[in-house]
Design goal:
Elements (H helix, E strand, L loop, with lengths): L4 H33 L3 H20 L5 H17 L1
Helix pairs in contact: 1-2, 2-3
């Protein structure tokens, strides 16, 4: 068990942060799936900026690696351009 009040607080805080990160990561993955499933170019182009923003936010907060974010954005841009 933790020996200090600060350690107990850190345990509580880490759990809250972990749940928040998990929620944001899952929400972004669902948005990426939705974008990949789009059939029309117009709808995909409308959805693309918000998905890129979500990916950038995950990378900024170190939930995903910067290179993974760049690879995801690149593949999604190519997908949207190919529609």
């Amino acid at each position: 068990m933790a020996n200090h009040k600060s350690a107990l607080k850190r345990i509580r805080r880490n759990e809250a942060v972990r749940l928040r990160n998990r929620y944001q990561h899952k929400t972004t993955r669902n948005a990426i799936k939705r974008l990949r499933a789009e059939e029309t170019k117009k709808d995909a182009e409308a959805l693309f900026p918000s998905v890129v923003s979500m990916i950038d936010r995950l990378a900024k907060r170190n939930i995903i690696h910067d290179n993974k974010a760049a690879n995801l954005k690149s593949k999604l841009a190519k997908h949207v351009a190919a529609l």
